[in-house]
């Protein structure tokens, strides 16, 4: 299995995704932004359709379109501060409308399944290069803004008082979310990419550690979910996205069971 070129590509891409997604995911969960993962993952569908229609690398067009949607979300949030879920619905409706029109035209439907469900066979070396470059930029940006992001996540008003440009931080963070999702769709698939962002974080939070330890455990759980899911998808001949999603939920359930069993024996 590991000597196969397409599996090597899949594992490299999966490794990068498994680190970046939970890192972003912890901030998403704590900021009560869980819905943004689903919104931007479905928005990437329109970006993929544009790429397939124009003959451009779908990851590039998905990144561009998802980034645009991320900016729109953050912009509209200033007008609907108390109804942020409404903003998500607006962007989701727009994106899916564009995607459906383009896909139904018949000109962009040939390879759409691999993006909807993920495919370890279609991860190319150029995809690896793009994921590595953009993923590296996202990771470095997260590390650079780490302390400010923590401050903004827990207390936006306090961050403003401390002189932090909260609006700029939120825009950058939303762009990072969009970039992370667009990079992950090759392995995870559009329909379930948000699972690797949120579920490992939910699992890590059950351990009730501090912020930094929860982040580390979320990345560990994300790595295990992706690697186990890829191996299983190879042997079962199933779509990696669905297999990874089921693996991540199974890991969460096992953690809850172990936690309850441990607590009852104390």
TrEMBL record:
Gene3D superfamilies noted in UniProt: ABC transporter involved in vitamin B12 uptake, BtuC
Location relative to the cell: Cell membrane; Membrane
Cross-referenced InterPro entries: ABC_BtuC-like (IPR037294), ABC_TroCD (IPR001626)
Keywords of the record: Membrane, Transmembrane, Transmembrane helix, Transport
Ranges that cross the membrane: 6-29, 86-108, 128-147, 168-185, 191-207, 214-235, 241-258
Membrane topology: Multi-pass membrane protein
Main location: membrane
Domain of life per record: Bacteria
Keyword check for Transport: yes
GO CC terms, sorted: ATP-binding cassette (ABC) transporter complex
GO biological process, one term: response to zinc ion
Family stated for the protein in its record: Belongs to the ABC-3 integral membrane protein family.
UniProt protein name: ABC-type Mn2+/Zn2+ transport system, permease component
